Amino acid sequence: MTPRHGLLRGKVALITGASSGIGAAAARVFAREGADVVLAARREDRIKSLAEELRSEGARAEYAVCDVTRAQDTVAAVECAVDRFGGLDVAFNNAGFGVGRTPLHEMGDDLYDQIMDVNVRGVWNCLQAEISAMLAAGTGGALVNNSSVGGLRATPVAAPYVASKHAVIGLTKAAAAEYADRGIRVNSVAPGTTRTEVVGAWFDAHPDMEAALHQATPQARTAEPSEIAEAAAWLCSDRASFVTGATMPVDGGFTMV
């Protein structure tokens, strides 16, 4: 049931990478907090099913098949929000791609290009489409980009991923500075290790790595996707009205040690 009151009540929200993991969790959290949601991802079967699930619980939800590396797809996703729900108030630019455990000198250009294309150009494309819609409406808004603790601390054998997530924080700050006087806030979250489908499968295959990451994290555990989604929802809400250009670590204390 959609609440009468919630952090995002009355907001129209776009969530990219919504087919699984943090994005799917964000769709549920944002809808629970009262937002009308547009789910954007490449896997149509996943986002269609999730939209139907949310509608069955009383939320208003639509979906748009979207590859964030294609500018026309991000424009279409924003247009879906405007056409179906009358505008765009908030967005969580969550779609991303990461591959680790490959030394820099052994990594091929094709993998470097793929990581940078999704993680940097993807956020760039989203910001351009979302900010354009918000400026046209003249009502402001709030955007949250998904970075990583890799955007705050370098880790070995993941150089392009670390570079891409530093770039996301740079884009966040630049956009926040440029559009603050137009009523648009731009922030980012920096998740620590989070038990998504991909990470869960990796840990199942390498339990020693999960134990090592827990040892390096003061809270000594892995995050659930919903914990990252909750932070993004708060940053998108009016409760964070004086927060812009910030990067919020959601990492169990990993980056403070």
From TrEMBL:
NCBIfam families: PRK07231.1. The keyword Oxidoreductase applies. This is Short-chain dehydrogenase. It comes from Streptomyces abyssalis. Signal peptide: none annotated. Keywords: Oxidoreductase. GO terms for molecular function: oxidoreductase activity. PROSITE patterns: ADH_SHORT. Pfam families: adh_short_C2. The lineage of its organism: Bacteria, Bacillati, Actinomycetota, Actinomycetes, Kitasatosporales. Belongs to the short-chain dehydrogenases/reductases (SDR) family.
